[in-house]
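ok trying this again, last paste got cut off
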Amino acid sequence: MKSGGTIIAAALCVAGPLSAQEGEAFEPAFSPEDDLDCAMFVGALMAEIEAEMTPDNRTGLTSAFTYFTGRYEAQRGIDLTEAFAERYPIYQRANPAEIQQTCSVRMRAFGARLQEVNSVLSRLQPARDPDAQSEETPEE
């Protein structure tokens, strides 16, 4: 696969902040097989950098893996074990730099969309006054 520095840099891209405009700049239509390739890329990345992963990297990469496998399953409905086994020889023959670039951009775009959702949900939450009493009445 790629050198450790390149792999770690790709992993850090997942956890790093990204503006919504950058995330929207590149999102062509991808096939379910492209999604499966990205899931394999993320899985290989996680295995390669297991020892160096921070909790944020692990969360980001696990989210990306789940995202890509979920997209694949939703479109193909094929057992994932079977799908991975069938696709892996094709994945191995693909250009690793191209897969890394495409999947990294897609992971950052997905991360940006999740950050936007989190921002919207945070704004929708009512502010809590720590001095306010609970609305529950104590039992007598």
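PB: full thing came through this time. The CA atoms of residues 37 and 94 lie 9 Å apart.
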